[in-house]
Amino acid sequence: MRTELRFLLAIVLMVGVLVGTNVLFPPVIPDTPTDAPGVAEREGVPEAGTPSLRLPPGGVVDEPSDDPSPPAVTAVPERLVTVETPLVRYTFTTRGGRVRSAILPNFESFAREGSVELVGAEVGPVLGSRVVVGADTVDLGALPFEVEPANGLLLSAGGGPQTLVFRHTAADPRGNVELRYTFRPDAYVVQVEGRVGFGGTVLLTELGDGLPLNEAREQEELRSRAYVTHHPREGVEARELTRVDEVEVTEGPLYWAGFRSRYFVLAMLANQAEGELEPFLGGAVATPIGEEESGQVDLVVAQPMASGGFSYRLFAGPQDYARLSTLGHEFQEINAYGWDFLRPILRPIVGVVTALLLWLHTSLGIGYGWVLVLFGVGMRILLWPLNQRAMRAQFRNMAVQPLLQDAQKRYKDDPEKLQKELMKLYKEHGFNPLAGCLPLLLPWPILITLFFVFQNTIELRGVPFLWLPDLSAPDPYFILPIFLGLSMFLLQWVSFRSMDQINPQMKFMLWFMPIFMVFIFFQFASGLNLYYAVSNVATIPQQWWIAKERKKVKVQQPEPATG
């Protein structure tokens, strides 16, 4: 069962038990055959007035064209150049001016030795380009380029932007091609610009075959990998790579398109301009490659060209919500939290909780493990008055319960009289079967929020605590899930010990729920287990006090009327 479904099942059952107990038991783009047409058709876009591209299938079309033929390409040996910034280390090849590797030196890979790779041998080079010229498609990825500076670039923190230029010079000036990559030392964004002398109507750019595996739990990461697009009308749409079993075409216009994994992103974005929208990306084609459900999907992004020129932005980096938000067009939603129907509610809560955790970590100078301990205790202290109110409501319900039972016996043959008597008792004693459980539901939004915080918050990736190697991964020794189950059992036992008689169903839940919670939570992030277990332990003193008060209330219960 998938992690999200297992968590949803746990929440539904726990809330059901909580409410039911109070109500029912009061306390008591691909290569296709060469005969396919290679034509880029344009459609108007009402929102922005820019063309929508119906994507050509790629490949060189052998049909004759009235346009001047593009120059022939001669294969030459390639040379590699490196661009190193404080955030990303790129390796480019002079064959096609493509990216051969992209490494994030500040993030450790848990699937191999070394740093996280977003481009590498596992998925092949990216940013290989093809230009549609009339009925022909010219592959720029096969062109030999000269590069300037010849030794690449080294950007230092605090410095300004620098540009790496690739030039292909042909005997016929129409065959000249220039590619420019501009880097900033403090950004994961690369500005890409190019111009081809022989013109062109559509640029087809390869984004590779997906992101390499970088997490220890391979199957979980395979499920998290997807290609994502953002259409002005359709919104953000994600498609898991393992579920792509045939060619999928996403018609443009698009704000952006790319790959994402659990924590990282590789994507192309349309340029962001002040006042006016830049031309959108034109569409995308995803083609499965390799074995079925391998998670390898070739993604080609198209965009219109103006007089042989093109430009776009490349993002290769972590899913840092603050950084992604600055890039515009809801790019931060490339790996949206939670299920669609919950996102409008979850997003603000996730933002507040994440910001609070980061603030506690930075301000107090303590590790995230201790931040979660402090957060769990703090939440229970904050909710103490609400829990007190809930327990007082239960006490009122408990006090009036004998009167309700007596009325049900006396007027069992007179439903109308029974209804009036019950309404009278409800009004006189403030009886409300849900009053005792509603305040107790307040911790659940926080628990649900933390579940999604640990799903893809980059700051919590690989953070150790005590015996735990990674707070975002399950406890390898299952100590926390078992401790969580024990803490839940203890909470229920403290509550039940104040009751003279325990309903058989309640006895069953006393044993079933802790075991069920261990089963559900043993594969969840250890940080989530840590928070929930600490929260349970912090609740025990209040639960103990409530149990003592419940015994006092039973002594003061009113006697049923006689006669």
Low-confidence stretches: 22-52, 56-68
Q: What's the rounded overall pLDDT mean?
A: 80
Helix amount, in percent?
25-40%
**N- to C-terminal distance:** 58 Å
Architecture (CATH level 2) name of the largest domain = Distorted Sandwich
| Rg | 31 Å
Instruction: Tell me the CATH topology of the largest domain.
Output: Beta-galactosidase, Chain A, domain 5
What kind of sheet is the major sheet? Answer: 9 strands, antiparallel
Produce a short descriptive summary.
34% of the residues lie in helices and 23% in strands. The strands form four sheets. A nine-stranded antiparallel beta sheet has the order 9-11-12-13-22-19-18-15-16, covered by helices on one side.
Quick tags:
single chain; 563 residues; alpha+beta; Beta-galactosidase, Chain A, domain 5; nine-stranded antiparallel beta sheet; six-stranded antiparallel beta sheet; 34% helix
Explain the overall architecture.
By secondary structure, the chain is of the alpha+beta class. It folds into two domains: 3-28 and 350-394 and 436-555, no CATH class; 41-61 and 77-336, Beta-galactosidase, Chain A, domain 5 (Distorted Sandwich). Helices cover 34% and strands 23% of the residues. It has ten helices and 22 strands. It has helices at 3-24, 218-224, 321-325, 343-364, 368-410, 415-429, 443-456, 479-496, 504-521, 526-555; strands spanning 41-43, 52-54, 80-84, 89-93, 98-108, 115-119, 129-133, 136-139, 146-148, 153-154, 162-168, 177-183, 189-196, 202-206, 226-231, 235-240, 248-254, 256-260, 264-269, 281-288, 297-304, 309-318. Strands 9-11-12-13-22-19-18-15-16 form a nine-stranded antiparallel beta sheet, covered by helices on one side. Strands 8-7-14-21-20-17 form a six-stranded antiparallel beta sheet, with no helix packed on it. Strands 6-5-4-3-10 form a five-stranded mixed beta sheet, with no helix packed on it. It is elongated, with a radius of gyration of 31 Å. Residues 22-52 and 56-68 have low confidence and may be disordered.
